[in-house]
Structures are given as C-alpha cells and as structure tokens.
Design a protein that fits this description.
Shape: extended
Order of helices and strands: EEEH
Number of strands: 3
C-alpha cells in the first residue's frame, strides 16, 4: 500500500464572515451516493432541536474524515487549541 502524504493547502478564512456554529446534536442521512450531516442546537425548555448547518459529503470523504478526526483527537488529548500542552 502506498504511503499518502498530507496535501498542503492555503486556507482562506475570514473570521468576520465565517461564524462558528455550535452544535450539540447531529442527524445524518446515508445513501449509496453520500452522506448528509444535519448539525443542530438544543432549544432550551422546548425539547426541540434547531438545525444550524447541513453538510453533504461523499462516502469516501466521510471515511477519511472520521479516521483523520479520530487520530487528531487522540493526538491532541490534553492539549490546548493550538496543540500545545496546557500549563
């Protein structure tokens, strides 16, 4: 199996126009063609959930995403946002 090197990309993020949407719920739809993730926020006092974002991905991308996220979470356990150990 061939070793794959991470792809380097220049990411342009405008923090003024790209908010972080907090989610404490996720619902997904899976089909042979792909996956749709519906991220939601609990509505206090109502028992309801408000969907704040929907993201569609190919099945192949979801598999890579889950594997990479799991590795990153394991590597950064006990570290701060930048990956530096907390004091």
């Amino acid at each position: 199996m061939e070793d794959k090197k991470p792809i380097q990309a220049n990411v342009n993020l405008n923090i003024e126009s790209t908010p972080v949407l907090y989610a404490d719920n996720v619902y997904w739809n899976v089909s042979p063609d792909g996956v749709i993730l519906n991220f939601g926020q609990s509505i206090m006092g109502s028992g309801g959930v408000r969907i704040v974002s929907r993201v569609g991905m190919s099945r192949e991308f979801v598999k890579r995403f889950i594997a990479d996220l799991g590795k990153n979470l394991a590597l950064t356990e006990g570290h701060g946002q930048t990956g530096k150990a907390k004091s």
